[in-house]
Design goal:
3-stranded antiparallel sheet, 4 helices
């Protein structure tokens, strides 16, 4: 969620960097989770030839960071 002048705005989609900040893991880990099907995402063309991954907010909110990531300290305390 983002905060704008006293109003909470719920995101519908995240980019890989945004999802990695929310989850407290590296962008590479987010991309790996997408490739393994653990995060729902779609490849979106923003302009030719640039494409970005668009990750659903519901997927980010329900994603569980693995215990090994937590033990290695890659998940930030919220």
């Amino acid at each position: 969620m983002l905060r704008y002048a006293h109003v909470m705005v719920r995101r519908r989609r995240y980019t890989i960097p945004e999802a990695s900040r929310c989850l407290g893991i590296t962008p590479e880990s987010v991309l790996g989770a997408i490739r393994r099907g653990r995060l729902k995402a779609r490849l979106k063309t923003v302009r030719v030839p640039k494409k970005i991954w668009s990750i659903s907010a519901e997927s980010v909110e329900t994603y569980v960071v693995s215990t090994s990531h937590q033990e290695r300290g890659l998940k930030k305390a919220l």
